[in-house]
Write a structure and sequence with these properties.
alpha/beta, Rossmann fold, 223 residues, Arc Repressor Mutant, subunit A, four-stranded antiparallel sheet, five-stranded parallel sheet, 11 strands
Length: 223
């Protein structure tokens, strides 16, 4: 299991990392919000330990951005005990919070509780269409059970949308609603995202995303 630890206090981050490694976790570190979001997109962690007061982009903002795209469990670290801050974190989608200072045992107890709840809420979901398999929890796409390809959160949602509507033309409006929600995304963003996903999907000619002029996109696959 993989954990992303986000804290600009390197000493504390190293202590937390040691605690997780001792429990058998693979650890990824980030010291600011910008790097944290990049690591989340590329590494697809199973859990995020996120300090609220980090540079470049604070923990609340990162929590909100990630939660809009993923159900990855998030535990906030904070020196604040103000009720409004705590409630704000939960409203943005955090699964739990822990106030500094804390002991490693206390942290791991919270982690185990959050992971138990997450497992019940999000059992492994694999979508299968023809020769295509999409693991929605692990962000993995595979063809004919070959080596899986890692997808970003947005790529995952786009592929999921195309697979749900396999055999049909999917309009840009449907894609926008599925990937970004009704208030987000535009035609240019759809085109850019389709281009990125095509580079992965069509690499070995296992499948194709066809552009149907004036209508939308269609997933072509082996049946």
């Amino acid at each position: 299991m993989k954990v992303l630890i986000v804290d600009d206090d390197r000493t504390l981050a190293d202590v937390i990392a040691f605690t997780f490694k001792r429990e058998g976790f693979e650890v990824i570190l980030a010291e600011d919000g910008e790097l944290a979001y990049q690591k989340w997109e590329t590494e697809h962690p199973d859990l995020i330990i996120l300090d609220v007061n980090i540079p470049k982009e604070d923990g609340f903002s990162i929590c909100k951005r990630i939660r809009e795209q993923s159900d990855t469990p998030i535990i906030l670290l904070t020196v604040r005990s103000d009720e409004e801050d705590i409630l704000g974190g939960f409203q943005l989608g955090a699964d739990d919070y822990i106030t500094k200072p804390f002991s490693p045992r206390q942290l791991m107890a919270r982690v185990r509780a959050v992971l138990r709840r997450s497992k019940k809420k999000n059992p492994t979901t694999v979508r299968q269409v023809g020769n295509i398999s999409l693991n929605l929890n692990r962000h993995e796409l595979s063809f004919d059970n070959q080596q899986p390809i890692q997808l970003s959160g947005l790529e995952l949602r786009l592929m999921d949308c195309l697979m749900i509507n396999a055999g049909q033309i999917v309009t840009s409006e449907i894609i926008i609603d599925h990937v970004w929600g009704p208030q987000g995304g535009d035609m240019d963003m759809v085109r850019q995202l389709v281009h990125r996903l095509r580079l992965k999907v069509e690499k070995d000619s296992q499948a194709a995303i066809n552009n149907v002029p004036g209508l939308g996109y269609e997933l072509i696959y082996k049946k």
